[in-house]
């Protein structure tokens, strides 16, 4: 009995902290203020851009994370440890540094050639301080989490079945597509959902790389910052609660899928 | 016919060098040896899943040492069976045939024929989850034999079965390998299995493959 009291007592500190945080937010905001805030056109635009940019970032992330997670899980090749470490950098890098690095990358001249200038003048698709910058900033972090998830997914799938498939006539590509890929669907949905949730919470890199221009590059995380900066605490809390609700939906989806990542 | 000449390979802590043995066409050969001595490594090198350091592997006169696993025409049943979790039993029997672009009627005929030979016709539309050990063995065997391979490699196929099922599977292995006219190399450390199945037998001892004497005559060298 004392065992459970001690262990439960320590564990409950964290659980209690989260519950108190949510309760404090709920107590602070009234339904009327919540409605007023959500009816503001700026916040509605931010909501739409958030949904769209997070979805695009998540889809791009799973597109990259599936092959990369598979390669890291299955093969030992020169530079594997290096790539494995590089993939983790966006996870540990301070968000502002990541945003600053993106900004520098796009505006740094390489022998007179500049990515942003080329994208704007030649391709006709400017990035910086526009919505693509929001997606790219979200993708930079979200993809790292998706790669981790996909790697764990493929680690949990027995590679022997793919080996046997190769003796039956499969190329490596066919073994991946026909044997490993169908087994990885839960992991892929989990990775997409986690990438989406990470993109939702992204703030620092977006602020630096895409700016926080109302009705242009404003997403919900920047809305909270903008509303706070003009002293509109009620709207900031209302948007925060909206983001909490979205995060809860993501967690429920993960749990319903039974991915094991939330159990 | 399988011919191994001066084969050297390494895996983990051990290495095997200058292995030589030969199994004639249609023979059922058994390779014995203690656990962890490299029997599975030999099998994996024959089916192309493990690179060899030197030497040659010849299957029916063709030097396949550097061929891809898909090109070797070898059926392989690993010890853990490695069935495909998202496939039905029928899917297992049809998989290699679809890769070879067989026509739909030919695929259906072959899978029915195999299912009857293996006694798993009633399981064809089942997923592999929930199959018994013996049923899973039959599915893995059917999958490996489906495309009429010239060589069949079996890695301790009966080790996880109870004695009744084992005896049943021994009879099945004997009959189905004859029926499909396939040269077979079976790994085991069970003397009883060897006595029941082997046309000829070898032992992996001190890093060398030696032919065992006192068994049925056979043509192994």
Protein architecture, described:
The complex is a heterodimer of chains A (263) and B (221). Chain A is an all-alpha fold and 263 residues long. Chain A has a single domain, classed as MetI-like (MetI-like fold, Orthogonal Bundle). Helices cover 79% and strands 0% of the residues of chain A. The termini of chain B are close together. Helix content of chain B is 33%, strand content 26%. Chain B has a six-stranded mixed sheet with strand order 6-7-8-3-9-10, sandwiched between helices. A four-stranded antiparallel sheet of chain B has the order 2-1-4-5, covered by helices on one side. In chain B, helix 2 runs parallel beside helix 4. At the A-B interface, helix 8 and helix 9 of A face strand 6 and helix 2 of B.
CATH arch. level architecture of chain B = 3-Layer(aba) Sandwich
Within CATH, the superfamily of chain B carries the name P-loop containing nucleotide triphosphate hydrolases
Which percent band covers the strand fraction of chain A?
under 5%
User: What proportion of the residues of chain B form beta strands (DSSP E)?
Assistant: 25-35%
**Biggest sheet character of chain A:** none
Helix content of chain B: 25-40%
Indicate the overall shape of chain A: globular
Q: On the 0-100 scale, what is the average pLDDT of chain A?
A: 91
Order of helices and strands of chain A: HHHHHHHHHHHHH
Shape of chain B: globular
Largest sheet of chain B: 6 strands, mixed
Helicity range of chain A: over 70%
Distance between the termini of chain A: 25 Å
Under CATH at level 1, the class of chain A stands as Mainly Alpha
Report the uncertain regions of chain A: none
Secondary structure tally: strands of chain A: 0
| Count of domain modules of chain B | 1
Largest interface: A-B, 17 and 25 residues
Count of separate structural domains of chain A: 1
Rg result of chain A: 22 Å
Order of helices and strands of chain B: EEEHEEEHHHEHEHEE
């Amino acid at each position: 009995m004392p065992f459970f009291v001690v262990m439960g007592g320590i564990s409950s500190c964290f659980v209690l902290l989260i519950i108190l945080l949510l309760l404090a937010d709920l107590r602070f905001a009234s339904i009327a203020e919540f409605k007023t805030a959500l009816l503001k056109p700026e916040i509605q635009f931010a909501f739409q851009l958030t949904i769209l940019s997070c979805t695009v970032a998540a889809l791009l992330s799973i597109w990259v994370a599936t092959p990369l997670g598979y390669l890291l899980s299955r093969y030992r090749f020169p530079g594997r440890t290096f790539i494995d470490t590089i993939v983790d950098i966006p996870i540990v890098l301070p968000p502002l540094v990541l945003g600053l690095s993106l900004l520098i990358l796009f505006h740094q001249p390489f022998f007179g050639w500049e990515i942003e200038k080329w994208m704007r003048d030649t391709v006709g698709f400017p990035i910086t301080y526009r919505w693509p910058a929001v997606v790219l900033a979200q993708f930079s972090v979200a993809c790292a989490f998706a790669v981790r998830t996909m790697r764990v997914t493929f680690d949990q799938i027995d590679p022997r079945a793919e080996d046997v498939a190769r003796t039956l006539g499969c190329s490596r590509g066919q073994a991946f597509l026909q044997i490993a890929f169908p087994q990885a669907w839960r992991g892929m949905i989990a990775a997409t959902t986690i990438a989406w949730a990470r993109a939702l919470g992204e703030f620092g890199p977006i602020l630096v790389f895409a700016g926080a221009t109302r009705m242009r590059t404003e997403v919900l995380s920047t809305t909270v910052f903008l509303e706070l900066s003009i002293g509109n605490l009620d709207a900031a809390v209302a948007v925060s609660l909206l983001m909490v609700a979205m995060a809860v939906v993501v967690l429920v989806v993960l749990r319903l899928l039974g991915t094991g990542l939330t159990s | 016919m399988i011919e191994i000449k001066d084969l050297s390979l390494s895996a983990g802590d051990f290495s095997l060098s200058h292995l030589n043995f030969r199994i004639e066409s249609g023979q059922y050969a058994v390779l014995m040896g203690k656990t962890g001595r490299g029997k599975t490594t030999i099998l994996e090198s024959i089916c192309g899943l493990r690179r060899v350091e030197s030497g040659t592997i010849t299957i029916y006169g063709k030097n396949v040492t550097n061929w891809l696993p898909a090109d070797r025409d070898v059926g392989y049943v690993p010890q853990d069976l490695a069935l495909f979790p998202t496939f039905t039993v029928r899917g297992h029997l049809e998989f290699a045939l679809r890769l070879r672009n067989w026509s739909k009627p030919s695929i259906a005929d072959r899978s029915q024929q195999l299912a009857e030979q293996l006694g798993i016709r009633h399981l064809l539309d089942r997923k592999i989850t929930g199959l018994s050990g013996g049923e899973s063995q039959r599915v893995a065997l059917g999958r490996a034999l489906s495309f009429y391979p010239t060589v069949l490699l079996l890695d301790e196929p009966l080790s996880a079965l109870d004695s009744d099922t084992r005896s049943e599977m021994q009879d099945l292995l004997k009959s189905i390998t004859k029926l499909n006219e396939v040269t077979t190399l079976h790994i085991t450390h069970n003397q009883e299995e060897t006595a029941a199945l082997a046309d000829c037998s070898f032992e992996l001892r001190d890093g060398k493959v030696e032919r065992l004497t006192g068994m049925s005559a056979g043509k192994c060298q």
